[in-house]
Design brief:
Number of strands: 11
Shape: globular
CATH architecture: 3-Layer(aba) Sandwich
Oligomer: single chain
Structural class: alpha/beta
Strand order of the largest sheet: 5-2-1-6-7-11-10
Helix content: 25-40%
Number of helices: 7
Distance between the termini: 30 Å
Number of domains: 1
CATH class: Alpha Beta
Length: 193
């Protein structure tokens, strides 16, 4: 059975934060005959999302129509600042993480997870310019400044922007084996960290 991979998008989301993981999971799905992952974007509302630098993206699902994710990806970007005050988004994240097998953040997506109370007692990272912001919203979380990504089992957080690709490849290795991650990276012509 294909696993659902839901990638949250929102206004001012950092493009590579969501597009990098999307590419990783979609590539390995294609290499495996489209029988592994159902990769899609989800937004609070079913309307075009204006990503960072003006890129317009149409989400596949809104919160109401989103299939239950096996893996939930929460990207970052300047738009996360508004999400920190959006109780609808925070409540949706809490509900989805309760049933998801893996929850992964990229960049300041970890700050959103922290605001939702989901990183307490864990180790986490974020973009190198936002360590203080993560500490502010995650006082009961150990902030890691030295690693590209941190794997707590169910919850994974990655540093900024391109680090989401490395974390996604790590997830592929966890789920499908190191050979699958290497095959994905080779296809993408990406050098794994």
């Amino acid at each position: 059975m294909k696993q659902n991979i839901a990638i949250l998008i929102f206004d001012d989301v950092e493009v590579l934060d969501f597009a990098g993981p999307f590419e990783v999971f979609a590539v390995i799905d294609g290499l495996r005959g489209h029988e592994t992952f159902n990769v899609f974007t989800v937004a609070e509302e079913l309307r075009p999302v204006r990503a960072r630098h003006g890129l317009s993206v149409n989400p596949t699902h809104d919160f109401a129509s989103c299939p239950a994710p096996h893996l939930l990806v929460v990207p970052g970007g300047f738009g996360t600042r508004a999400l920190l005050k959006n109780e609808c988004v925070l409540a949706w994240l809490r509900a989805q993480t309760a049933q998801a097998e893996i929850v992964m953040s990229v960049c300041t997506g970890s700050v959103v997870l922290a605001q939702a109370g989901l990183l307490d007692g864990l180790r986490a990272t974020t973009h190198h310019t936002c360590f203080a912001l993560l500490r502010e919203h995650a006082p009961r979380t150990e902030v890691v400044e030295t690693d590209r990504f941190v794997d707590n089992g169910k919850f994974l957080t990655s540093a900024g922007i391109s680090a989401g690709i490395d974390c996604s490849l790590h997830v592929v290795a966890r789920l499908l084996g190191a050979d699958a991650a290497d095959q994905t990276a080779r296809h993408m012509e990406y050098r794994r960290a």
